[in-house]
Write a structure and sequence with these properties.
heterodimer, A: about 70 residues, mainly alpha, Non-ribosomal Peptide Synthetase Peptidyl Carrier Protein, Chain A, about 55% helix, about 0% strand, B: Rossmann fold, Methionyl-tRNA Fmet Formyltransferase, Chain A, domain 2, 7-stranded mixed sheet
Amino acid sequence: MEEKILKILEEVNEELPEYTGNNMLKDGLVNSFELINIIGELEDAFDIEIDASYVVEKYFGNKDRIIELIRMLL
Amino acid sequence: MGSCRFEQVIVIGCGNIVCTVLLYMARLKEKYSFDLLYICHETQGLNAAEGICREEQIPILSLFEREGVTAFLTNVLKKTWVVSAGNYYIFPKKVVDKENLTVTNFHNALLPKYPGRNAPSWAIYYNEKESGATWHFVTSDVDAGRIIWQGKCSINKHTRAYELTQRIMELAQQGLESFAEDMLNREVPGTAQNVCQRKMYYSYEVPGAGRFSLEDSAEDIYRLLRAMDYGKFGPFGRAVTQLPDGRTVEITRYKPVPRSEDERGIFVSDAQIVMSLDEQTDLLLKYKAKE
């Protein structure tokens, strides 16, 4: 699962898997359009629905938080 | 240091586009030495403008009420260029008529086509082959002022609203960079629009009323879904349809997929609908019961 997520992130920005900050959007690693793509790819890859309420720093701040979120939704 | 006919530049708006405008204006500020101010009137969940302002040391004025923005702009005394981008505040006549203010706005369509809200959606919905970005002067008539700059981009049969929005914003940035210094140095005349027969699009309008029938062509359904697609934060919500058994459902995801069955037609199962899009492709729709 982690590998799949990292691959999705890497396709948007190869620096994302290495990013250790807390807000990849504010730190300029992704823009909101790229975030839409990431969410769509995650939903397709894991056949899940990610509610808009999860699209916040707490769940989408960095790769570890995204992995935790997907784990929770599966 | 370059000569500049404005003492101050005020940026107003939200979203990605205002971030690029702020970054560019911060660069020009170094060269032309004007005061730069950001008015935050509306926020979006993903707005990074505040971070940019902190980094670039741009003062932020948060005015979430329309009246507050109007009162502030009405009392501006300096010769000021107001740059509006991703902005839903409508400038009243008493603001745009002020002699010391020059107000310009970015619109996400090729004006005079698609004035008003959600223009990329309407361009996709009406099957336009191209759209683009317009920078124009602001008058009291919405999106009707003289055009300063326009740039075009194509719309293909898979373009989604958020993708078109992104492309148009990239064009808007190019546009700003091509005319901003002219604007700072001299009067820019712009070109008048022909607004006689235009239709205004309002925020409450939704392409196709957000509904489709399974009897519609897959191409039309796909176009409607693409027109409504701004990811999780879209203004339209999800498209709705009625299944053959009478249940009303909303579409949670959609995508074209390679044809898996030889037979063409519409196949409805527990959580998905598959319909033929063309000779090699099906349109896959995931749905859930409408809440």
